[in-house]
Write a structure and sequence with these properties.
Blueprint lengths: L6 E4 L6 E2 L2 E2 L3 H10 L3 E6 L6 H10 L9 E3 H13 L4 E5 L2 H9 L3 E2 L10 E4 L7 H12 L3 E4 L5 E4 L2 E4 L1 H12 L4 E2 L5 H11 L6 E5 L2 H10 L3 E5 L20 E3 L5 H4 L1
Parallel strand pairs: 1-4, 1-13, 4-5, 6-7, 6-8, 8-9, 9-12, 13-14, 14-15
Antiparallel strand pairs: 2-3, 10-11
Helix pairs in contact: 3-7, 5-6
Length: 264
């Protein structure tokens, strides 16, 4: 089944680490997979960090990675909007500096809360400083005609002692107030997966998607017609497997990413 696999798309939160704690043994596993000639891409819905910041985050946990190995929903969102709409549009971002920098690099104009009504787009992602002022600004922008786009709709992020609210919680607040559903770029949309394939140079039958959540990682793989592996170190647990519909059941179920060494 994995004979044609040349690369692995790893989710991060709940798959490679939880918060600031890596999954035990994951560094050795990644090094082993690379030694077998496999291309590693960290395909994450979390757009709160830049590629450089993700490398630093890895280093803080004793893990090695190159900037080019990270592909985020923020990168996919900006690239998608640039190709579809072109540059020069005004964007109100519910999110941090990493996503704003990506937009600026592509020629988009970032507007603040006071000028949100002028925005052509509202783009939401994980925002640890989300507050009423930002919610209000996003609502005004959408009322005045801005298109609503979400980098991802993950309701929670796995951390060491449980879960934190994710980008989906911020987007849900905006949707509740405006009655507008966002256009989704990140997993489980196949958009981010197909863009990651182009980024990596891999074909869909050459890459394996590995993640901890059926609702995002595995469904994205199914929609993109790619092979998938579910790890039980994050959101989806062993007791949840019996409730997964057959059409969304992962091709492989692993206790953790370390079990990949047995498959390669």
């Amino acid at each position: 089944m994995l004979g044609d696999i040349k690369g692995i798309f790893f989710d991060l939160d709940g798959c490679i680490y939880r918060g600031r704690t890596p999954i035990p043994g994951v560094g050795e596993t990644i090094a082993y997979l690379k030694s077998k000639g496999l291309k590693i891409i960290y395909l994450t819905n979390n757009a709160s960090r830049s590629q450089k910041e993700y490398v630093e985050h890895f280093k803080s946990m004793g893990l090695d990675a190159a900037e080019s190995e990270f592909y985020t929903s923020g990168m996919a969102t900006v690239e998608y909007m640039y190709k579809k709409y072109g540059s020069g549009h005004k964007v109100y971002v519910v999110g941090g500096s990493a996503l704003k920098s990506l937009f600026k690099e592509r020629g988009f104009i970032i507007v603040d809360e006071e000028h949100a009504k002028e925005a052509d787009f509202v783009v939401s992602c994980f925002d640890p400083e989300f507050n009423f002022k930002r919610l209000e600004a996003a609502c005004y922008a959408i009322q005045y005609g801005a298109k609503f786009i979400a980098t991802n709709l993950d309701m929670v992020l796995p951390v060491e002692d449980g879960y934190r609210p994710g980008a989906g919680a911020m987007a849900a607040a905006i949707s509740a107030a405006t009655k507008v559903k966002p256009f989704l770029i990140g997993k489980p949309s196949k958009i981010i997966v197909e863009m990651a394939l182009k980024y990596s140079g891999l074909k869909r039958d050459e890459a394996l998607i590995v993640g901890d959540k059926v609702e995002t990682d595995i469904i994205a793989a199914k929609r993109a017609r790619m092979k998938s592996a579910l790890v039980l170190t994050g959101v989806t647990k062993a007791e949840d497997l019996k409730r997964i519909p057959e059409k969304y059941y992962p091709d492989i179920v692993l206790e953790s990413v370390n079990d990949l060494k047995k498959l390669f």
